[in-house]
Design brief:
Rossmann fold; Sc_DH/Rdtase_CS
Length: 149
C-alpha cells in the first residue's frame, strides 16, 4: 500500500503536464516477486504487485508523455535486518528458507545502491526490472509486454 501511494503521489507532482519537472521513480521490490516463492507466498505476491505497478505505469502513454520514467530494482537476499528476522510468523519453513539463503547468498546494500543509481542515470531505461543478487550479479529481466488495445 505504501509503495503504491508513494508512487502515485510522486507521479502526480513530477508530471510535466501538471507543472512538475519530470524525472524518474525507482521502486524497490524483490527477486521474490519475479519467481514463485512457496516459503513466503504473501511476501512474493506483494513484491510481484510492485513490479506490475511500476511496469504498468511506465508503459502508460500519458505517463510516458509526462516526462516521468519508472523502473524497479529487485534484489535477492540483502544484508539487512529482514534476513536476520526470519521466523515462523513470516515464513512457512524457516529451516528451508535459511538453507535457500545460504545457497543464493546475501548481497551487500552497496550492490543494491549501484543497481538503483544505474537506473537513475540511464535516461533510456523506462519500465526496466533489474535483479541484483550475490549468485547472479546484476541482470536486466525481460518481461513480455502485451499492450492493451
Amino acid at each position: 500500500k505504501g509503495t503504491t501511494r508513494g508512487t502515485l503521489l510522486a507521479l502526480e507532482h513530477m508530471r510535466t503536464d501538471k507543472g512538475g519537472k519530470g524525472g524518474v521513480i525507482i521502486n524497490i521490490s524483490s527477486a521474490a516477486g519475479l519467481n514463485v516463492n512457496p516459503l513466503s507466498p504473501v511476501y512474493s505476491a506483494t513484491k510481484a504487485g510492485i513490479i506490475a505497478l511500476t511496469r504498468s505505469l511506465a508503459m502508460n502513454s500519458e505517463v510516458k508523455s509526462a516526462g516521468v520514467r519508472l523502473n524497479v530494482v529487485c534484489p535477492a537476499f540483502v544484508d539487512t535486518d529482514l534476513i536476520k528476522e526470519i521466523n515462523d510468523d513470516n515464513c512457512l519453513d524457516v529451516q528451508k528458507a535459511s538453507k535457500f539463503i545460504e545457497m543464493i547468498g546475501v548481497v551487500s546494500k552497496e550492490v543494491v545502491v549501484d543497481c538503483f543509481m544505474e537506473l537513475v542515470r540511464d535516461v533510456n531505461q523506462n519500465g526496466a526490472v533489474v535483479k541484483c543478487s550475490k549468485m547472479d550479479g546484476t541482470q536486466y529481466t525481460s518481461i513480455e509486454v502485451k499492450p492493451v488495445t
